[in-house]
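Late entry, evening session. Most of the bench is empty. Finally got around to the prediction I had been postponing all week. Sequence below, unchanged from the version circulated by S.P.
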Amino acid sequence: MSGVTRIGHIALRVRDLDAAVEFQSDVLGLVESERRGRVAFLTCNERHHELILIESGRRGYDHIGLEVADPAALEETLRAAALAGAEPIGPVYDGEPGIDRAALLGGPGGHVYKLFCGMASVTAPPVGDRPRRFEHASVKARKLGPTERFLHDGLGFAFSDRMGRTASWWHCDADHHGMALIFGPRHELSHYAWSLPDLNAIGRVADRLAARGQKLLWGPSRHGPGHNLFAYFLDADGVMVECCADLAAMPPHGDYEAKRWPGGFGAINRWGSPPPPRFLLAGSPIAHSSPEWER
């Protein structure tokens, strides 16, 4: 079977690796599964990693990791992605920590995606207060159409929701969305998101932020598209993070019906006020470079 079957991970470039790892551990409960030089791999479950942190002079996001079923699916998806306008960034390769085989793609607007198969398993962290899994990534684009066609025709994502001309949501498994697209003046990362058990778990994240002298950026509240509870904040390097709970499931796993919501901000917050300017302006630049473990 070709196409993406799971949202895998996100890789971020950070100024101070130890400080970034400490933040993710203290606030979200992530556990470092491996470190290779200036690169740390973190997880919240039995998967080798769901977050990669790369110490670098460049702030931004390096790539979004998307999982396919096996090596044959990897090759087939690469061919479909090329027909949908993707540009290969080097050949298929192996030897990366935690995964069997991978290839990097440049998508519309310069966004970088890593298709991979064969995620290694590790001993699950002790029972604790942490996310269940990495849930989705949200990117900004000057035009949504090219990225929508790339996700659908090239990577096998299916449509979930649209809000006017400003945002759309796409799924590759039961979750309402693994990728979200937002109209913006620059191609960049809007935020990355984690799945938490419930609103109380989101509240405890907010408590840990408060203990560090930091406040939420927006929320908690509930989105219309996806029906999920949410709270947003900034990580140690100023990248926006979303903590989610109660995300809708798409058929046949659930009964959520794909919708076309009106434009404006009414749908995006069902409980309260529109998103604040800091949320709308938040963004992290594309900062891809060759993998540090190959240098």
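Two things to note before I forget:
The helical segments are 17-28, 71-83, 144-154, 199-211, 277-281.
The chain has five helices and 19 strands.
Will write this up properly tomorrow.
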